């Protein structure tokens, strides 16, 4: 099967399935066509293989029945979109052909660690590690089970758009829920095949959950004035800068889970908003923040934003007042305020529709909705509004109950086999790279999601998460992936020995244990 996995991987990599491009359509069709050749999806069982429309890009759903009468169902999943190959520069055209890319980069000056991996046979190229190898392993196993019989029911789900806003998984989940209901099935466990990139030596991390992510925003509103009358206003840039200095990288913005400490808030965009050139102080600045969380509730995430906004706004006013005093000038500003998006909505009412008027992603349209609400509210600065923008990835973590215990016991057999093959498995509570397991795993019960919905711009119109459907598909999750390095970089690469000859045996052992 080793040769078949490599063949499948090269075939999948050849499709330029960059997230948001037509290549995703081609990729979905290719995966469907490969599986459609199998006998388990032919004749009266052809309905067990289908595509799910994800706004013009297909997800692929395939169901294989157990050969021995097991009622357990193992879910295998992964995404087939990749990030852009533009970072490859003049090698971008061969980034999707690992064999040709290896020849081309071998003739170039390379850092020693990269040269060493190339000489040892690592496969370089876009998608080799992230994450077409995981899909190739799953598909090769399905082909094997088509010939020899599957130890348990297998539900395979390959989706687009994970590298963007996970539209593929969010669109697929309701269809998967209907599919399971129609057949009276429940998923025993979901297995993802994302690569592990931080492993050292023979340690093989196995993740039993996936980190959550929210995109926080802070809209800083100043008081505009001509720069010649500086102290008749206050700059939104000053306000935003002080808020950012209090929030970005702040220890209190970092969540924890046991001994694990997650990265703190990171600013993913700071935009001073103005049409054209003007010699007046900026009165609006929108900042977006990446918030990783696992044990915190939506209320606590909102509190992190509120505290930083209050501290930063007060600091900006104090600094401007201090400067005015030093220069012998008086400063008189209206009373400042900090409010949540839900509070702004109560003042402004519903925002005017902006989706059709804004180019770009739903994130940009949602940000425009916040500005529309501010316009309708009639409120002036100095002020700050905090809330959330898309996307949202709920955290999932293994809990202490029988369902999780069954997967843990099955994984013990997988771990034993890994040790026999020379690898030391390491049980890691959370996969810290964002993953679609957020929509398949069981909710960790960390708060009422209504707070997040009420404070997310564009919720329901521009963006949503299928929470109700998620309840029907959720199951214990784990990530069993290959070893990779430098995902999203021009040196993305995959270690082939484990990926092709060990990982498939480990996933198959899990299926055998699940069947019991």
Could you characterize what this model shows?
It is a single chain. By secondary structure, the protein is α/β, with parallel strands linked by helices. It is built from 14 helices and 18 strands. The chain has a six-stranded mixed β-sheet with strand order 1-2-5-3-6-16. A five-stranded mixed β-sheet has the order 11-12-8-14-13, sandwiched between helices. α1 (2-13) crosses α5 (128-148). It is elongated.
Give descriptors for this structure.
six-stranded mixed β-sheet; 14 helices; alpha/beta; 18 strands
Strand percentage: 15-25%
Q: Which word captures the global form? A: elongated
What is the residue-mean pLDDT, rounded to a whole number? 93
Q: Biggest sheet, open or closed, and with what strands and sense?
A: 6 strands, mixed
Which runs of at least 5 residues are low in confidence (pLDDT < 50)? none
List the strand order in the largest sheet. 1-2-5-3-6-16
Portion in helices: 25-40%
Distance between the termini: 24 Å
Helix vs. strand class: alpha/beta
Q: Count of helical segments?
A: 14
Q: What is the number of strand segments?
A: 18
